[in-house]
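[SOLVED] Need 3D model of a two-part complex

Original post:
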Amino acid sequence: MVGGVCSGLAQHWNIDPLLVRLAFVLVTIYLSGVAGFMAYVALWLVIPEASAQTGWNRRWQAWFARYSGPLASVFVVLLVFTTTGLVFSFKSAIFLLIPLAIVGFQLKKRPTAAMQPPPAAPRYAQNAQPTANPSPMPVQEPLGTEPPPEWFTHPDPANLYGPRVEAVPVPVPPKRRRYTLRTWSLIAIALGVTWSGLAMAQHFGVHVSSLAWLSATLAVLALALIMVSRPKRAQHGRPAGLILAAVVVAIATALSMSSGLIPITPSTATTKTHDVSVEAASVPEVMELPVGSNRVDLSKLEITSDRTIHIKQDVGDLTVVLPKDVAVIIDYQVDIGEATAPGTDKDGIDIQGRYSVGEPVNKPTLTVEVSLGVGKLEIR
Amino acid sequence: MKARTDVTALVFGTLFLFMAALGLWMAFGDPSWTLVGSLIPLGLVAVGVLGLSLTRNRT
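Solution:
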């Protein structure tokens, strides 16, 4: 919690603050962090403080008081997201114009009761008789014996003219704090044991990918959530930040999983293929290729002694054409994407493999080490 | 006052546990996507039923 915006909205809408926070995090991640930050700051300025009329931004809220609070909040969020998205050329921001227009139309169409004209002044004595000689001065109507119900029993019920009353923070019961600390301590121990197990597995030769680390962390946090949901533990309150930490790790895990499922290849329609043809006379030891679509043609390469070539590319498509009459060993690694060689096709995360052609007996061997960050590798 | 289950934590924990299990399966094995495709809807239904049953008569 930073400015209490999400909890304020949740209180206004009478829903769980966790849902508002989650929705805010998801929308922020979907569009951009900058837009989320700006929306939060804008709402922080707009939404009144919990300490009633003494908030520092109360002067700004006169305009917003004329409109429905939830609609105005949604309108501000959409406006900030749309503006930021359009500035940063996000295509998705264009689609936000439609809900923005709808909410804006509704905002103008349905003013709240605060926009209605004030009711007519009450007449306290309905049976007052008009005077016979009307005078230019207004006639004061006789009041009843009882004070009218519109009168406040207290002259300043909202403390508009009194000294500023600071909000008293609600103290956290020490028992709840102790339970939170104990739960986080147990989570730390469980995470330590889990990560030690993964590190030992890696030490003994098991390949542990980043997805495994994230999934194991998420499993520990998920088990902790299930443990704290038990009635006996739940009565002491949910540990602060546990769901938020689990959501963050879950998003990271989902991104890691989806990047392994969806091969990321840049559009070849807009990217020029960069051809690199290697002749016998010039065998570079290291080739660092630019981002995009590259094709390294080694088919005309003739070597008289063993050679090693390193080919590196960060993002894009890479096609390597191997020579025919040369013994070739190619070791490849693709961090995220797809790797295709004759007879094999792999996709996912951290792809490693070896492909060899020809018998290296009485022949010089060409060793090619290919490293591709994100994209598609094709070996021909 | 009778102690009640924290349904939000339970539902989120169960969902995240499913996701973590799938992630570990992807990391250390070759998941059968046919099986995953049939387990995910069933798991969602189970979690939804669990949440509905635990939040019944709470108000």
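Edit: Chain A touches chain B at residues 16, 18, 208-209, 211-212, 214-216, 218-219, 221-226, 228-235, 238, 242-243, 246-247, 249-250, 253-254, 256-257, 260, 348 (CB under 8 Å).
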